[in-house]
Amino acid sequence: MNIILTLKIMGALLLFLGAAMLLPIPFSLYFDDGAAGTFTISALICATLGAALWKGIRSSTEFGTREGFAVVTFGWSFYAVFGSLPFLLSGAIPAPIDAIFETMSGFTTTGSTILTEIESLPESILLWRALTQWLGGMGIIVLSLAILPMLGVGGMQLFRAEAPGPTADRLKPRIQDTAKLLWGVYVLLTAAETVLLMLGGISFYDALCHSFATLATGGFSTKNASVASFDSAYIDWVITFFMFAAGVNFSLHYYALRGRIKDYFRNEEFLFYLALTFGVTAIICVLNQGTVYSSFWDNLRYSAFQTSSILTTTGFGTADYEGWPVLAQYLLVFLMFIGGCAGSTGGGIKVARILLLFKHAHHQLFKLIHPRAIRLVKLGNTPVDRDVMQSILGFFALFMGVFVIASFLMASTGLDLLSASGAVIATLGNIGPGLGSVGPVDNFAHVTDFGKSVLIVCMLMGRLELFTVLVLIFPTFWRK
Amino acid sequence: MNIILTLKIMGALLLFLGAAMLLPIPFSLYFDDGAAGTFTISALICATLGAALWKGIRSSTEFGTREGFAVVTFGWSFYAVFGSLPFLLSGAIPAPIDAIFETMSGFTTTGSTILTEIESLPESILLWRALTQWLGGMGIIVLSLAILPMLGVGGMQLFRAEAPGPTADRLKPRIQDTAKLLWGVYVLLTAAETVLLMLGGISFYDALCHSFATLATGGFSTKNASVASFDSAYIDWVITFFMFAAGVNFSLHYYALRGRIKDYFRNEEFLFYLALTFGVTAIICVLNQGTVYSSFWDNLRYSAFQTSSILTTTGFGTADYEGWPVLAQYLLVFLMFIGGCAGSTGGGIKVARILLLFKHAHHQLFKLIHPRAIRLVKLGNTPVDRDVMQSILGFFALFMGVFVIASFLMASTGLDLLSASGAVIATLGNIGPGLGSVGPVDNFAHVTDFGKSVLIVCMLMGRLELFTVLVLIFPTFWRK
Question: Who has greater pLDDT, A149 or A235?
Fold first, then answer.
């Protein structure tokens, strides 16, 4: 592994991070919240170190698979550390472990928070918080649709430039071009949501922050009561729609913008995701009607919002689902494991993997009765290669393994069983709020420092599809 | 599928069941508990129906894979229904659903009970209850080491007459011979435990019933307070030892009896199982020392007993582990999913499958760094065929799928989240006691009839390695 080259690339990434830190400055000056200096200093630190690494390191340009893994894992870790500077230097989050937790939660679009009081913080700091999610979401789209497929991680090969319909019109294959196209879609959707939210009567600042957090399926809000604070059915529905959209494979949106709207409905993962969203919303509506809500429209609004928020792993709240009927809670916990579509900003195991897992199990049953039949598992019309299926099954095994071990570590910090495993699935699935003492109306402030460290690693592993981080534990990975 | 032939074989199985029902009669007469008539009538019903089916049906003798699945699934179901006759006719369990639940729990060696008061029941009825477990255990050993490998279910091929060491000395391959040899071991171990328990001062009747339930990893006791009622360190240790033994692949015991004791330590699954037993016992001891128990020897006794009881899926109780530290409880819940070794009477996912799951995940990581390396996953020195691995991964996916769906159904009966999923893992893993309101000091009496039906199916599916039951849902299975 070429560590020198990896550090050089970290330099470039830090330069970009420094530039991003300039964005909150105009907001700071507008709101006169006193944090403009903090952002300037933070940006300077990042830029100086970044320039030193980028310019100072001479390295060969040989870039292989292993450097790919290192850049991704180190990149997200560097961003979590250096991105926390504004929180630390402004005094908004005094403890380094807390600041790194919050920043990792941002860049991994998780949305778990250690903040107990949000609204008293400077506006520009909250904008930065939302921006880390939005930037993280940008990273994820490119990671999942262009980088991980190249590295052969967890069956993501299936979704590389996945072109439903004729293959002649694939997404351009080179990473840079792919990135630009998908980011165009991402920016467009963010702008659309911002405008629609402003039409609902909320300020440009709040609209922008919430759009950042929605498209990234992140869930950081500028309000203590999250989206509930707007108390508006219109706002809720706009956000529900965009959460749903953010959970869809972004290459489908790209094709839709080019006029191929039907492609959505030719995509098996999307159809399953749609069915799941509608199905679970309907069941939860039935369960909540008359017990939690008396008005059907209120019920539909809250049930749909919470279903989308959990399934897409956004984590925005408009209702305390821990007060809902047990069966509704059970469904939400189940959704936490599934997550968004592959190639979306959503976390979790991913809809396509769950779908393929079912198909694999069904296939194994079929083979018992028809041992001589030759049939391949397919996703849509694409036969799934055996190697890809092995990789997906390996991902599932790793996910469960990490879940079990991390839950054990969290239980060792004194959390009860529900909170311990809830905290792990909330971070490993990049959801945000968990269950029990880290539930939707609580936060992660009371978790011990050791516990926070475990969850930081969970967020990183979950976001980078496990494999990317775990290959680093092999000694042979580090060999030259 | 030849349903006629399947029914004919059901006839033979019912004849055997009828014969088994004669066994409690001498005990009934000795204790003068008034149930002798019940057993006679029950035996007559089984014998008459059995003879009618066996003698009355003319069928071709073509016996294929599909008939194999049908015989196994129907066989266990018939036993659960007709084996419940003594409970029903004696009035010990008046409701049919309860009686079938209890009997299914017996023949699947699960040990979940709907009885709230055990000691007031006739002795011969409790003996029958323990006997259903013992007979179920006999069935399981042959099923897992001779029948399922032939049917190609869930990777059990790996364990067919698994001969650690030179292959010339394999267990005799034909089902009947294999069965006789393994049953010899089973009977011998049961006899040994019975004698050792009697040396501890308990009656032949209690010793026999508890030995039946131990070797089957069933867990039905003749006492309300389970094994705790004997309040003897000696008894606890004897049962701990035999629970551990019952969780081992019985072909290893067979080789040991033929003098090849070292074979245990050449078997990777056994070594992992041993490490797990000692490791978890040690951790739980550390957690309980000073908090739950002040005496080290008491602590070791209770911690080792409960670890073995849960890992082997026996479910005997000497302590209410729900009062133990959260971390100890967490470990026990984790063990519930693992279960015993393949080819033992233990339930769960099975130690070997968990081991191979880890190895598969590790292998997938390794392949990312060394894409061109050719390496196979091995269990011990045996390379694991890709088809077998696919089947094991399919089993894992099915187990999780069934767990999720069944937990949802249980939550719909009004149980809380912990109790609902606890009830499912306790039955699907054939453990016995669950968590929450179906925990170690509670029982399943309060579950609704619908809930009991779901759990009956869970016990059946878990015991028959899922595949065997689930193939029946394919319409093509039933085609001639």
Answer: A235
